[in-house]
């Protein structure tokens, strides 16, 4: 009897997931830019965050009581955009017909060692002795004021070019897959 109840609950949850997916995908048709979003990702091969599209998708998902959008915003948006376009996009009525095919998107997490130029902006202090005027003190500093610095304080850093990359390896190859929490279940 317990197994039968569990089976019914799983089926009801799956039915509700499909219902919410159909509604979400259908409402996505009112938002322009999904194809451009995917095209930019394919062109750049990099997570292309689109805050405007992400906020509009989040607005749809709020219909189901989803409220915590801090985690996996890019992954969620990428998954919904891919699933939307792969299943007919703007031309399909998602409420009718077969359930949408759920995208399974490969990703590759990489690790590498690299050397990068860093420019440190600091304020330094030092003491010049044995002179009688400010002009004479500045003249003594001349072209090598850094040799007079006794103490300093970091203000800011600017990062320059990456000058060398080595030891590149794939650390993980996870897939972006649908999470029922994305539709409030």
General description of the model:
- With 185 residues, this protein is of the alpha+beta class.
- It folds into two domains: 2-108 and 172-183, no CATH class; 111-170, no CATH class.
- 38% of the residues lie in helices and 23% in strands.
- Strands 1-4 form a two-stranded antiparallel ribbon.
- Helix 2 packs across helix 4 (73-86).
- The two termini are 24 Å apart.
Lay out the secondary structure:
Layout: H1 2-28, H2 34-44, H3 51-61, H4 73-86, E1 105-106, E2 109-125, H5 134-141, E3 151-172, E4 175-176
Antiparallel strand pairs: 1-4, 2-3
Helix pairs in contact: 2-4
Based on secondary structure, the structural category is: alpha+beta
Helix and strand sequence: HHHHEEHEE
Give the count of helical stretches: 5
Count the beta strands. Answer: 4
**Count of the separate structural domains:** 2
The largest beta-sheet arranges its strands as 1-4
Task: Using brief descriptors, characterize the structure shown.
2 domains, 38% helix, two-stranded antiparallel ribbon, 5 helices, single chain, alpha+beta, 185 residues
How would you summarize what this structure contains?
With 185 residues, the chain is α+β, with helices and mostly antiparallel strands.
């Amino acid at each position: 009897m317990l197994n039968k109840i569990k089976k019914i609950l799983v089926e009801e949850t799956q039915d509700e997931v499909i219902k919410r997916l159909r509604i979400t995908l259908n409402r996505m048709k009112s938002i322009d830019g999904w194809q451009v979003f995917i095209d930019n990702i394919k062109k750049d091969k990099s997570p292309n965050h689109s805050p405007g599209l992400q906020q509009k998708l989040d607005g749809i998902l709020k219909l189901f009581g989803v409220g915590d959008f801090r985690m996996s915003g890019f992954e969620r948006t990428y998954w919904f955009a891919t699933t939307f376009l792969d299943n007919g996009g703007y031309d399909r009525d998602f409420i009718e017909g077969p359930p949408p095919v759920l995208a399974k998107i490969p990703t590759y997490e990489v690790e590498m060692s690299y050397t990068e130029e860093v420019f440190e902006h600091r304020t330094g202090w030092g003491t010049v002795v044995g002179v009688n005027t400010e002009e004479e003190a500045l003249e003594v500093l001349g072209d090598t004021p850094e040799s007079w610095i006794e103490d300093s304080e970091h203000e800011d850093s600017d990062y320059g070019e990456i000058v060398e990359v080595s030891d590149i390896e794939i650390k993980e190859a996870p897939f972006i897959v649908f999470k029922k929490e994305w539709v409030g279940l």
